[in-house]
Every structure is written in C-alpha cells, then in structure tokens.
Amino acid sequence: PPLCRGLEAEGLGARRLALLLYRVDGSLREIAIGTARPNRDPDALLRLFAPQIEQIDAGFGIETVTLAACVAEPLGALQMAIGLTQPDPQPDHPPVPVRADGAALPASRHISSPELNNLSNLLDRLGNRLGFEQLHRLAPGDSHSPERAQRRVAAAVCAAMPGWWRDRPRPLRLLEQPVPVSVSVDHAAAPVALHRREGAQAIAAVEGPERIAPEWWRPAPEGANGGNRRARDYWRIEDEDGGRFWLCREQGGAARWLLHGLFA
Question: How far apart are CA 166 and CA 77, in angstroms?
Fold first, then answer.
C-alpha cells in the first residue's frame, strides 16, 4: 500500500515491480512481475506476486526485503474508478435500428471500468506465466476496409480507438472470404428476406446501408476479379431466430449479395 500511495501521488501506475530478498548469508533473491497496463491496485499486484512468494527458499533467514516499481507510466484517476462506464467522446449517435416489433436492435456496448480491470488482471496473470511477448490482441487498423480494419499487436500495447469505430459496429467474426447468398429486397433495395436451404428467412430488423469503397491507392490482389474492386453497401440484419449477420451488396455490373460476418 505505501508504494501504491506514492504512485498515486505522482499520477503513475506500475508496469514492472521487483521484490528483493536479502538473505542473512549475503545472497540475493529477486522476484519480478509485470503488468499489461499501468496498475496501482495493491490487492491485484499482490496476487501476481503470490505464486512466486510461495516458492521462496528463505535459507537461514531473510534479513531485508525491498519492493520497487522499476517501470512506471502515467495512470489517470478515471482508469482506477469502479462502477463508471467509459466516456463517449462523440455524443452524437446514428439512429437506433428498430425491429419489426418496435424493439431496438442490440448495438455494440461500451466496456465498463470493472470489466476493463478484470481484463487487465487476466492479461497480467497470463503475461507473468507465459511471457507478455506471447500475448496478442486485435487493435483497430487505419482502414475502413473490413479486411484491413484490424491488426495484431502485443496485448500490452494501448492502441487508440478511431472515433468512427464507435458508430460503425463490426461483427465479432469476420469471414476470411465473403460468401455469396440469396437475398430478397424491397423497393428501397433494403434486404427483407435471407434465402437458405430450408427456405426464406424473414429479416426482423435491419440497419444500413454503410457504403465502403475500395482503397484505390492499393493494388488489386493478384488474380482478383473485378468484384474485389467494387464499392459495397453493408447492412446489419437480424433474422426472426435472433441470428445477426453482416451482409453487403456489391455495386456496379452484376450486383450480388455477400455474407461477410456474424455478430454475437
């Protein structure tokens, strides 16, 4: 606690801590832990030390123990708050999509501070057991193209979230290659039914379209056909069974519908 109070006074959080044990025979034992993000929660840090402390061989006795924050980084008070939701920097949101029965279509929710703390604690435990270099996560990429909208980074890296991501929810599972599907549309070209082997499945809720144009400055993949260079109109839909899908319709030429992702 005294160390964490000192970090708080400086507006810092620990990223690496070292516990030094000076034995009476003159030998030194060091126990070190790391954190995925700046942390100054005494209980959370103690839990990271606990597995190694249990294996300490005291020998003929330990004369002195010191604890040091070897690496510390800025940590704002908001990140330590409990029970607060993350602030939304963009107060204006697009209209809420509505189901056929009048209920709102579920949207991507913001992660609360307690959930962020739980995730950080999990990353800390895994990182200290496996090595932080073994942990990776997906971060936003600087592209509107779904195939390049995410990139793989180290779990400990804090990547900025582009503002447009909040208003354009993306599916949890993105298919490596979009799958052609048969879709019925209304007079406004909005999807109203999804055709499967077992028959037509009515669409209960729909949101869109969101047009994503190809990145003209990138060369087309080798062997790609003309369809890979077309603009696409994307729709979030929910069928009568509660399945949520990300459909798109290619523009120009023989337009076709594709299934590109699945929402949770």
Answer: 23
Does 162 sit behind a cis peptide bond, omega within 30 degrees of 0 on the bond before it? no
Q: Which of 130, 51, 50, 39 has the alpha carbon at shortest distance from 79?
A: 39
| 8 A C-beta contact, residue 155 and residue 123 | yes
Cα 170-171-175 angle, rounded to 5 deg: 120
Query: Exposed, middle or buried by CB within 10 Å (0-12, 13-18, 19+), for 238?
Result: buried
pTM beyond 0.85: the answer is: no
Phi, psi of 227 (to 5 degrees): -65, -25
- Using CB atoms within 10 A of its CB, is residue 90 exposed (0-12), middle (13-18) or buried (19+)? exposed
Give yes or no for a contact between 250 and 232, defined as CB atoms under 8 angstroms apart: yes
pLDDT by residue (tens digit) across 103-138?
Answer: 444 444 444 556 667 777 888 888 888 888 888 888
